[in-house]
Design goal:
Layout lengths: L2 H25 L5 H8 L3 H29 L1 H20 L4 H29 L3 H33 L3 H4 L1 H15 L13 H24 L4 H23 L13 H31 L4 H29 L2 H18 L8 H28 L6 H23 L11 H25 L3
Helix pairs in contact: 1-5, 1-6, 1-8, 3-4, 3-5, 3-9, 3-15, 4-5, 4-8, 5-6, 6-12, 9-10, 9-15, 11-14, 11-15, 11-16, 12-14, 13-14, 13-16, 14-15
């Protein structure tokens, strides 16, 4: 192996440390929900915020994270994001109350938004050869899938052996190794020419999403006619309209609304958002079902979720090949349809289900997602000219993260109040997840033509 190749491989390892840690926190928290609820005396709405505080900041700041890297240096932003993520993890691990835990989760989300888009930019700079770059991105995507698989398993073991706080302490050594290796092997790169940060757009986007999530979560507990919920709802509408008006007038907008004149681009991103809307809500509801209704241990919950994530991760490369051979329309439609069917059947499971049937449905859901995700990403990116591929990818990532946050906020409210977890509420949440994916399948079939 040549020195240049060895150096590039070290760059890949460096960015994969941060990627693994960031993606891990999307799934690892679910197996700890019951332990968090018992330890810091938080209701279901508080648990929704524990999940969504991370997702909201992650999704709303991701577009600006890439712009900041272009302006001030990708390595600088990547390391800064990992440092912030680790500091947020320490805050989570030591949080004496759910308010502080939610605040620390928000700090994690900010760090993730800075690090994740710049990890790909670093790879692009570190692998000048197009073929080697494609392979590196393949490994990057593989690590992303591995982290989703590892989350429930590692989380279940850590919570069972050391308590829920250990799922955040594990980020310390991973983050430290990632920072050390990045400082050693990654060279700084930037591209500030003609670029500037769209600060008004960023503020309005974050304001819109945060107030919307607040209204959706708290409206189910405070009442939809309560003053805080009404104020948040009005503020979300005002911020959203202002965001649209500001972005239309920006020379370099954070979100170019002209993209949405393309029906395929719109359908692919809406379907991607619906996919994560359903799956994040399902993970939240199903994890509480296993923990609070079936009274399974965190380790057992991790094994149950692994049944879905392993087929998903192993089948993703085949999903990409199917998309390359048949185009995006059929894999996206059939994949979302299969996952929707699995979720709809899962919502009708009895209180004491047949485990073989449950595992079979989880495998079906995972396989469907593995077929749909590459198709939706390819459709979103392929709908725009090649020179806008980066922007198309950023919009698609943001759509999925926003969809996930809204899914937990909206469907999570069905589950119960306080420490009471309702079986009918869980059924409704999983049913809603299946209907969301079914709608995504319809949009894919109707509007994705490639």
């Amino acid at each position: 192996m040549s020195n240049a190749t060895s150096s590039s491989f070290a760059v890949l390892i460096a960015v994969c440390f941060g990627l693994f840690m960031i993606q891990l926190d999307l799934t690892i928290v679910n197996v700890a929900l019951s332990s968090i609820q018992e330890d810091i005396k938080v209701g279901v709405d508080g648990l929704q915020w524990v999940v969504d505080a991370y997702a909201v900041l992650f999704s709303s700041l991701m577009l600006s994270g890439g712009d900041l890297g272009d302006l001030f240096g990708r390595r600088r932003l990547y390391i800064g994001g990992i440092v912030l993520f680790v500091l947020g993890s320490i805050g989570c691990a030591t949080a004496p109350s759910y308010e502080i835990l939610i605040g620390a989760r928000a700090i994690q989300g900010i760090g993730a938004a800075a690090a994740l888009p710049n990890s790909l930019a670093i790879l692009h700079h570190g692998f000048p050869d197009a073929r080697q770059r494609a392979r590196a991105i393949g490994w990057w995507a593989g690590v992303s899938g591995l982290s989703l698989v590892a989350g429930p398993t590692l989380g279940g073991f850590l919570v069972g052996a050391f308590g829920w706080r250990s799922i955040f302490w594990i980020n310390m050594p991973v983050g430290a190794l990632g920072i050390w290796l990045t400082l050693r092997v990654v060279t700084e790169s930037s591209h500030p020419q003609g670029r500037h940060l769209d600060m008004p757009g960023q503020i309005l986007a974050t304001s819109t999403l945060t107030s919307l999530i607040f209204a959706v979560i708290e409206g189910q507990y405070l009442g939809w006619e309560s003053v805080p919920v009404l104020v948040a709802s009005v503020w979300a509408i005002v911020s959203g309209v202002a965001f649209w008006l500001v972005e239309r007038r920006q020379m370099h907008p954070m979100l170019d609304f002209r993209f949405f004149r393309n029906p395929t681009f719109v359908a692919a991103n809406v379907a991607s958002g619906l996919m994560n809307f359903g799956m994040f809500a399902m993970l939240f509801a199903f994890s509480l079902y296993l923990l609070r209704i079936l009274l399974l241990s965190p380790e057992a919950v991790g094994i149950h979720l692994l049944v879905m994530f392993v087929p998903f991760a192993l089948s993703l490369p085949f999903g990409g090949r199917i998309t390359g051979h048949f185009g995006s329309r059929y894999p996206a439609t059939l994949g979302l349809g299969a996952s929707a069917l699995g979720l709809l059947l899962l919502s009708r499971m009895p209180t004491r289900p047949d485990e073989a049937v449950m595992f079979g449905l989880l495998v079906l859901i995972g396989l469907g997602l593995a077929a749909a995700m590459p198709g939706l990403v390819a459709a979103a990116i392929g709908a725009l000219p090649p020179e806008r591929a980066g922007a198309a990818s950023a919009v698609n990532n943001t759509s999925r993260q926003v969809g996930g946050a809204l899914g937990v906020a909206l469907l999570g409210g069905f589950i119960g109040t306080g420490k009471i977890v309702s079986i009918p509420g869980i059924e409704e949440a999983i049913l809603g997840s299946g209907l969301a994916l079914l709608l995504g399948a319809f949009l894919s079939w109707r509007f994705i033509k490639q």
